[in-house]
Amino acid sequence: MVDNITESGNRALQTLSACNEAVIRSKTEAELFSNICEVITHSGGYRMAWVGTVQHDINKSILPVAKSGFEDGYLESANLTWAEYARGQGPGGLAIRNLQPAIIRDVQTDERFAPWREQATSRGYASVIGLPLIEEGVAFGVLLIYASENDAFDSDEVSLLVRLSDNLAFGVTAIRNRLERRTTEQALKASEESLRETQHITHLGSWVWSKQTSEMRWSDEIFLIFGFLPVSIKPSFETLLAIVQPRDRQVVMKAIENTRKHYLPLDIEFRVERRDVGERTVIMRGHVHFDDNGRLSHIMGTIQDISEQTSNERQLLLQRAVLESTDDAVLITDGEGVIEWANSATERVTGYALDEMVGQTPRLLKSGSQSEAFYNQLWGVITTGESWQGEMINRRKDGALYHEEQTITPVINKRGEITHFVAIKRDVSKRKAMEREQREVEKQLKQAQKMEAIGQLTGGIAHDFNNILASIMGYTSLALARFTKSQDESSNKLAEYLNRIDQASRRARDLIAQMLAFSRAGTSEPRSLPAAPLVKEAISLLRSTIPSNITIALSLDEDLPPINFDPIQFHQVIMNLCINARDAIAESGCIDVKLNLTTIVNDSCASCQSGVSGDYVELSVSDSGSGIDPENLMRVFDPFFTTKEVGKGSGMGLSMVHGIVHEYGGHILVNTKPEGGTDFRVLVPASAVNDSEELSVPTQSIVDGVVTPARILLVNDDHSVAGFIAELLESIGYQVVVTTEEKQIVDSAREQLKHIDLLIADYAIPGMTGVELAKDLRQQREDLPVLILCSGNSEQPQSPEWLENPLNGFVRKPIDNQLLLSTIRKLLDGDD
């Protein structure tokens, strides 16, 4: 027994001694734990040893951190805990909870070890001791030692092992303290380095002034701010004041004195003069500290170089002044499109104050004029880092719409991230209005050019038709004049047919006169006429252009005083008003045309806005259409204004009505309401004289009396017209020489000049005009009478010299035979 005690005691002593050496030798916790376990198993001869640390998790587990000896996976399945339940009743859990050694003297019989018995027995563990590792009264770990014999731990051995565990715990604490101290020192060093780096980055240095010694300490950064080496000068307020610019020095001195004597906080910005870089701007701050007796101890503060900041602020102020002075609106948003700033031009254009816009998005100005696809495309461009340029219509605060051009540019930082968007906008509403007006003028010009071209084409066609009609009407009149009326029924029928041809030709003549009036190739010929027949004739011509679903109702007072009007232009007024009424009716409806005498009292003309009073012949054209909007009513008489679709109207109809009606002293009244139809009332002054003539069948005798014998030169390149005129003139006794060949006209005329009494020339002859031919011939014979045949006003000689010469005359085509013969007689006889 004594030998056994001595043996176990020696084993414990050897283990304790080796463990103490391990504590001294080990540098880290892990190394110490590992060394201790190896000493226990190798020097102490124990079967196995391990160290576990206390875990404060939900299971209160024990985490193995080091082991030695025959372990063979035992710890992997041990599932140790220091909780109160069964697996916490082993030596490890008991030692941790009780802060005392816990011994299992016989693994086979001790029920507390039941959870691990089988695994322990298979590995040759017979007894176990658990030793708590304690720091400041709390177990942070446990040392477990396994012996291969029962009851291996007597009191002496336990005492030695307790000392071993205490030394282990002490060693762990010492290592932790060393590590903590080293960490603290490193942190302090890093903090000081970080402070120096921070001061350098921010150009901020620290200083301390002691009241007791009157000495001042500067950090390295202050020396750098002032351009000194740290060992080159002695820090002091006097040193500082020496480099302050003279114009700031008194202010700085006073601020320092107020802090030292009156304990006021120091906060002042001033300029210093450096020898290497010139002027710098700094800001100096300081705070007074007192000792335990309430007396001034020291002043601690900072000095910061704010030269770049000041320069940047000046630059920002300049940029802001520029942005505020520009007429363009400038809007800045963050990367999400939230407004952060806008200049005064933006406030002026939008009507929103800056504080109303900040925090909103530009959707505040959305008008609905652009589609969502438009905004999606815009956002897709600028979020990729590209600029967007374009136009849009936005809405002001008061609801008014305005056009703006804008450029939106993303602001990208050094990391390539979009931080802001800058929109530069310009209100182009006035320019857009001018562009619209210009387009309207261009459209009107094109329309005018088109109308002019159509007019020229119409005039040319009318001229050709006049030549054709001249032949038809001339030969018809000749046939009627030479026709000897007989009792034969077939002959009577022939006369009737000729009369119908003549009447149809006259209607064709009137139609051509309208075409010439449209082309401005005709002249107005006002006559005093009854209005009702003119209305009937115009409506009869119009019926073919009115759809079958629109009816025309006539209500005409036949017993009216005449009107002084050109019949062709009166036709134009009626036709334009009826066509306008037709176009106002969407589907089926009615056009009412009325003619009556009316008295107007204190009304106003819809087109010229003049006052209207008096008795008038009234032509009323009303429709059952959609009516005229009030905003359009003032413009319906403007040239080229139309509410119809493109290609559906020239916009000239009502303006022509206005011009024609007012030319004859008339006025226009308009009654309309939306969806209630429109009534145009044309008021024309009545005439006292009636110049109308009924159409009559041409008489057989064209000219009464005997003609004076004369030789007439007829120049006309149209064979049919020339033939008809020649036959007409020869039929009553004139001699006629006809020249129709283009190449012979001038030469033939010159050859015949001495032998002729009258020149009849078409206005349009090859190579010249009839007037030019007359002037050429009159160079040789000044007294030559000349008769010009013309189509409309464009061919009619206009010069006063021509018109005042009694040797000159003209007749329009289609030719009226009576007028032609009477004009010839007048020229030959020399009648005024």
Explain the overall architecture.
The structure is a single chain. Helix content is 42%, strand content 24%. The longest helix is centred in the middle third of the chain and has 54 residues, at 429-482. It folds into five domains: 2-179, GAF domain (Beta-Lactamase, 2-Layer Sandwich); 203-311, PAS domain (Beta-Lactamase), CATH 3.30.450; 326-427, Beta-Lactamase (2-Layer Sandwich); 531-684, 2-Layer Sandwich (Heat Shock Protein 90); 711-829, Response regulator (Rossmann fold), CATH 3.40.50.2300. It has 23 helices and 29 strands. The strands form seven sheets. It has a five-stranded antiparallel β-sheet, sandwiched between helices. A five-stranded antiparallel β-sheet has the order 7-6-10-9-8, sandwiched between helices. The chain has a five-stranded antiparallel β-sheet with strand order 12-11-15-14-13, sandwiched between helices. Helix 14 (489-518) packs across helix 16 (567-584). Strand 28 (786-790), helix 22 (800-803) and strand 29 (808-812) form a beta-alpha-beta unit. By secondary structure, the chain is of the alpha+beta class. Mean pLDDT is 82; it is low at 1-5 and 692-705. The radius of gyration is 61 Å and the shape is elongated. The termini are far apart.
Strand order of the largest sheet: 2-1-5-4-3
Major sheet: 5 strands, antiparallel
- Unreliable runs: 1-5, 692-705
- The coarse silhouette is elongated
Helical residue percent band? 40-55%
Secondary structure tally: strands: 29
Oligomer state equals single chain
Number of helices: 23
Number of domains in the coordinates?
A: 5
User: In percent terms, what proportion of residues is strand?
Assistant: 15-25%
CATH architecture of the largest domain: 2-Layer Sandwich
Keywords: ATP-binding, Coiled coil, Kinase, Nucleotide-binding, Phosphoprotein, Transferase, Two-component regulatory system
InterPro entries: CheY-like_superfamily, GAF, GAF-like_dom_sf, HATPase_C_sf, HATPase_dom, His_kinase_dom, HisK_dim/P_dom, HisK_dim/P_sf
Protein name: histidine kinase
Pfam families: GAF_2, HATPase_c, HisKA, PAS, PAS_3, Response_reg
